[in-house]
Amino acid sequence: MSIDLIVALSAAGAGYLIGSLPFGYLVAKANGVDIFSVGSKNPGATNVKRCVGKKAGNIVFLLDAIKGFVATGWPILLAGESFHYGLIGLVFAVLGHSFSLFTRFRGGKGVATMLGGVVALMYIAALVGVLVWLAVFYSSRYVSLASICLAISLPITNLVVGSPATLTWVSLALGLLVVVRHKENIVRLLKGEENKFAKK
């Protein structure tokens, strides 16, 4: 078995396990809440913030982003200049977060984990994505719409700045996964039934 294959399989396996760490579920449980039974029943930072509190939600977002960063970053450090192993780690981290091994393959929508990995690999796309998220959220107060726009912005930014084709295609695939994971939110947005975050 070649070293390249070993590194690729390690990046995939470790990425999935790291991504599977159910921080939303654990933080909520530490506060006496079963996050799968309240609100949208999603273990992502948004539902945790709504059902447990702002501090808990922010902690979950940070931890989920760190999952993506670590899963993406360590293969790059190990393999030197090649970013392809980092991409493998990122893809499997997002899959692990979305379909967690530890919560019967239930999981979040992958936005924070994807963003953490994108910071490690495509910092310009990450910066543009954050700016897009902030602009959409503060103009609409819809977290879901802001997250969808962030996901869509990643492959567009990579295409515009001339990133390697592999980065563009992977960011497109991950963006589509995030959009699909928001399908129920999209239906509610179209019906005008999606919940907004109230101004504080």
UniProtKB/TrEMBL annotation:
Any GO MF annotation of the entry: acyl-phosphate glycerol-3-phosphate acyltransferase activity
Catalyzed reactions per annotation: an acyl phosphate + sn-glycerol 3-phosphate = a 1-acyl-sn-glycero-3-phosphate + phosphate
SMART domains named in the record: G3P_acyltransf
Superkingdom to which the source organism belongs: Bacteria
Compartments, as annotated in UniProt: Cell membrane
EC number: 2.3.1.275
Single biological process term from Gene Ontology: phospholipid biosynthetic process
Location (main, coarse): membrane
Any single GO CC term annotated in Swiss-Prot or TrEMBL for this entry: plasma membrane
Membrane topology category: Multi-pass membrane protein
Family label: Belongs to the PlsY family.
Subunit structure and binding partners: Probably interacts with PlsX.
HAMAP family, alphabetized: PlsY
Name under which the protein is recorded: Glycerol-3-phosphate acyltransferase
Species, as recorded: Pelagicoccus albus
